[in-house]
């Protein structure tokens, strides 16, 4: 959640102070030192000819600006300061002597009058420039040139909408508004405050300001301007001494009553492994923590937990709530996990969330659970269910996106569930995630798992939702048809923070269609290139959301693998593909050539069993991909719409897209099962070259380990 960012450098900074205090200069300096996006409220507020915006539009604009995860906003605009303060990490108040402020404002007005428009708000300046250009072209024959001075024939540009009121504002700010700024900024208990004193001899003023702030109950750090600027450049987690406002206890988000919670991926032998699929365990945990709960997160599957170890954890943890993550791949162990929890923690509130409960919610009615999340974002549904349990509100009619047990029956979800805006997502705490075990799971490339063997992966979930809506994909029902995406700056900050804490070697961006928003990708690439170290990375998208210039930028920013859903080259299967994925063969050849030229591995998903295709067709598709120097990853067609509530676990596990084909079904469709099985289990001899492109420590490979064991046996 956003609050977890408090452990890092401040990313949402307000720069305040009276007119002429030097806010803009400080904000620009800060933006250039930190790379945070900078917004000047004067540019946002004033329209051409010093027109004011509609108040509602103005409020909406400020909410848009502050919705991002990182920004610097320069400007006071007191009536709406609460909107910005509520989202800020840090308030920097510039305190400059009144006479100096007055002189600066007058000097600025004179500069503008003389034709230097650089201090004017953006739209006022643009209008003045176009008026000047117009008058210049109209009068060029006679006058020969048009100076910006006084905007040429359009008359002098007003230096400010209201010069005299502006001068009055300076005096009033010192006398009265200063206090209001402090009080309104501190209404956010998490905000820290730094006062930068811009005076020639700041000593006595620093002491006076500090005393005044203390009398307001707002302890802050107060420093002369050069020291404050140096401190901001170093961007500590919070300026030392700038503590949250006293007397205001930091509240957990929402109204949640803190519970002791276990979020667990139950024990299971994976038929397939992708760290991104396990991530909900940790995003749910992080979100619940941000809501004030005490949370343990456990990936018992990847940790190869025995059922005894899982039972120990459940029994000894004395949890008030247990969240079991569900998946097609672990359905066979789910009932056992629920039974263990019921037996070993009988008072715990038991809830499940995951891919399977979205596709087949009816199946879960047969399990002794208290709640099943069936829609919206997992963490939103889980948090709502825990709030229900913690508040003891069985009188509520139900919850959106969550089925709740009531006696022997179930209360249906009251709506489709809550999709959280991206700025409310909680990024996983890497200390929770067994990345060492994940690396082991990726170690043999023949398995065709999604990771890069022998290199430690950091998964960064940057987007959710996909508007493309392939009929064989569960992303739209799991995450919605509208894409939501976190800011590129937040993603890069997270990467930097995680690499500082753990020896990661590359990044896996987890997004359904990574290049759906190309402008975002370009911004991300620019930010990655500006980082002091290089982060190799991979992503997944479609062939049609790539262009050559973008591939070039991605390669320059460290991209080593792009995964794409090729699905099939068979013309008969066209009806099973969405429009944007039609004619994949032509597009594939082009994209493969771009990637080959730039040293990016193209990793292509092929669906075996797609309606209209044959096993031979799937094999032809795979051969064509390999011949073009790309990597083919066969997956199985899964008609999710055919699922039924009364299916057995074994039947449901057949819907696992990643591994097992029901041989009887294949035969009844008129195909030879052997051909299918060869595609999935036969191996293709392709080993990724990407490992060699990512710097990393040498590993003891399984082959080397096997050699060592065989040597020992021979010696014995
Ligand atoms: S483009 Fe990819 S993520 Fe989007 S619906 Fe199709 S398969 Fe799913």
**What oligomeric state do these chains adopt?**
single chain
- Overall outline: globular
CATH superfamily assignment of the largest domain?
Aldolase class I
CATH architecture of the largest domain: Alpha-Beta Barrel
Mean pLDDT: 83
Q: Which CATH C-level class of the largest domain is it?
A: Alpha Beta
- Look at the helices and sheets and give the structural class: alpha/beta
Q: Could you please describe the fold and organization of this structure?
A:
With 716 residues, the protein is an alpha/beta fold. 41% of the residues lie in helices and 15% in strands. It is built from 27 helices and 21 strands. The strands form four sheets. The chain has a seven-stranded mixed sheet with strand order 8-7-9-10-11-12-13, sandwiched between helices. Strands 2-3-1-4-5-6 form a six-stranded parallel sheet, sandwiched between helices. Strand 18, helix 20 and strand 19 form a beta-alpha-beta unit. The longest helix is centred in the N-terminal third of the chain and has 23 residues. The protein is globular and about 90 Å long. The site of iron/sulfur cluster (SF4) has 11 residues, from helix 17.
Provide a compact summary of the structure.
By secondary structure, the protein is α/β, with parallel strands linked by helices. Helix content is 41%, strand content 15%.
């Amino acid at each position: 959640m956003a609050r977890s960012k408090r452990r890092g450098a401040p990313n949402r900074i307000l720069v305040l102070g009276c007119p002429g205090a030097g806010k803009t200069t400080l904000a620009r300096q800060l933006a250039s030192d930190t790379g945070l996006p900078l917004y000047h409220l004067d540019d946002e507020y004033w329209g051409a000819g010093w027109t004011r915006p509609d108040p509602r539009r103005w409020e909406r604009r400020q909410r848009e600006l502050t919705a991002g995860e990182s920004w610097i906003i320069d400007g006071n605009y007191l009536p709406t300061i609460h909107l910005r303060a509520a989202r800020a990490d840090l308030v920097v108040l510039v305190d400059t002597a009144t006479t100096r402020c007055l002189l600066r404002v007058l000097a600025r007005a004179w500069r503008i009058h003389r034709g230097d428009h650089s201090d004017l708000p953006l739209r006022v300046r643009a209008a003045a420039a176009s008026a000047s250009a117009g008058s210049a072209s109209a009068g060029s024959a006679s006058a020969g040139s048009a100076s910006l001075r006084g905007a040429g024939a359009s008359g002098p540009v007003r230096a400010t909408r209201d010069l005299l009121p502006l001068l009055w504002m300076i005096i009033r700010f010192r006398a009265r508004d200063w206090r209001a700024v402090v009080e309104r900024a501190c209404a956010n208990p998490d905000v820290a405050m730094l006062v930068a004193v811009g005076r020639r001899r700041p000593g006595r003023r620093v002491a006076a300001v500090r005393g005044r702030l203390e009398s307001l109950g707002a302890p802050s750090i107060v420093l002369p301007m050069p020291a404050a600027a140096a401190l901001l450049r170093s961007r500590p987690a919070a300026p030392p001494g700038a503590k949250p406002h006293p007397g205001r206890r930091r509240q957990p988000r929402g109204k949640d009553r803190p519970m002791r919670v276990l979020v667990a991926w139950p024990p299971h032998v994976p038929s397939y492994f992708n760290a991104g699929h396990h991530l909900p365990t940790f995003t749910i945990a992080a979100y619940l923590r941000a809501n004030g709960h005490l949370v343990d997160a456990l990936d018992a599957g990847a940790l190869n937990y025995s059922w005894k170890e899982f039972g120990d954890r459940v029994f000894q943890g004395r949890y008030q709530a247990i969240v079991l993550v569900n998946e097609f791949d672990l359905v066979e162990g789910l009932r056992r996990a629920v039974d263990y929890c019921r037996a070993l923690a009988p008072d715990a509130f038991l809830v499940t969330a995951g891919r399977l409960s979205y596709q087949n919610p009816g199946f879960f009615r047969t399990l002794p659970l208290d709640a099943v999340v069936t829609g919206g974002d997992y963490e939103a549904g889980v948090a709502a269910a825990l709030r229900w349990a913690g508040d003891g509100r069985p009188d509520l009619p139900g919850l959106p996106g969550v089925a709740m047990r009531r006696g022997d029956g179930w209360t249906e979800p009251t709506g489709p569930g809550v999709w959280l805006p991206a700025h409310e997502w909680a990024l996983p705490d890497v200390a929770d995630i067994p990345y060492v075990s994940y690396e082991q799971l990726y170690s043999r490339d023949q398995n065709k798992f999604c990771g890069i063997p022998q290199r430690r992966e950091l998964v960064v979930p940057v987007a959710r939702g996909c508007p493309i809506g392939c009929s064989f994909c569960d992303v739209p029902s799991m995450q919605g048809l509208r894409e939501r995406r976190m800011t590129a700056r937040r993603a890069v900050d997270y990467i930097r923070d995680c690499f500082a804490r753990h020896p990661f070697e590359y990044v896996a961006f987890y997004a359904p269609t990574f290049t759906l928003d190309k402008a975002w990708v370009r911004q991300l690439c620019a930010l990655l290139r500006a980082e002091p170290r290089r982060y190799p990375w991979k992503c997944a998208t479609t062939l049609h959301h790539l262009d050559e210039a973008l591939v070039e930028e991605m390669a320059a920013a460290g991209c080593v693998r792009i995964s794409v859903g090729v699905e099939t080259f068979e013309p008969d299967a066209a009806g099973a593909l969405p429009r944007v994925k039609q004619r994949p063969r032509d597009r594939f050849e082009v994209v493969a050539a771009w990637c080959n030229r730039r040293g990016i591995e193209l990793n292509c998903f092929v669906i075996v069993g797609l309606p209209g295709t044959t096993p031979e067709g799937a094999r032809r598709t795979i051969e064509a991909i390999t011949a073009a120097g790309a990597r083919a990853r066969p997956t199985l067609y899964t008609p999710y719409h055919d699922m039924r509530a009364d299916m057995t676990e074994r039947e449901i596990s057949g819907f696992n897209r990643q591994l097992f084909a029901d041989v009887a079904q294949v035969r009844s469709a008129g195909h030879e099962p052997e051909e299918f099985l060869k595609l999935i289990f036969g191996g293709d001899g392709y080993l990724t070259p990407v490992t060699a492109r990512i710097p990393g420590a040498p590993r003891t490979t399984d082959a080397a380990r096997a050699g060592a064991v065989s040597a020992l046996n021979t010696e014995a």
